[in-house]
Amino acid sequence: MSSTANLPLRDGNRTFHMQCAPGEIANRIVTVGSHARAKLFAQSLDQVVFETSSSRGFVVFTGTYRSVPISVIGIGMGFPMVDFLVRESKFACAGDMAIIRFGTCGGIKEETEPGTICLATSGSLVT
Question: Are 58 and 17 in contact (CB under 8 A)?
Fold first, then answer.
């Protein structure tokens, strides 16, 4: 694949922001904002077979958990980072992928106290 404005590539076939090539991202992704939290999650993997830290604010650990390939990716914060995560991960993994985000966010309901655990009741499918 050649580099485009929507998917810039460099150093051969590596994504510009995450610095990942095809095969280095698993189809199952856990993402967090904090790099320290990503490293903590990665310690739960059975083994880590790929690890990188990019100059664009991403940290990636790919390995297995209970024999299932999984990538743990620290992305920092903000929607642009999520956009890069989705586009560049899709390039670097084959087939369908599932992304689960663990983290914190601001709230807009006054009755929701700080520290309240909130779970999404629906998700999005991007094809």
Answer: yes
pTM: 0.85
- Which H or E run includes 92? helix 79-92
pLDDT < 70 stretches in the chain: 1, 106, 125-127
pLDDT digits (tens, 9 = 90+) for 75-108: 998 888 999 999 999 999 989 999 998 877 767 7
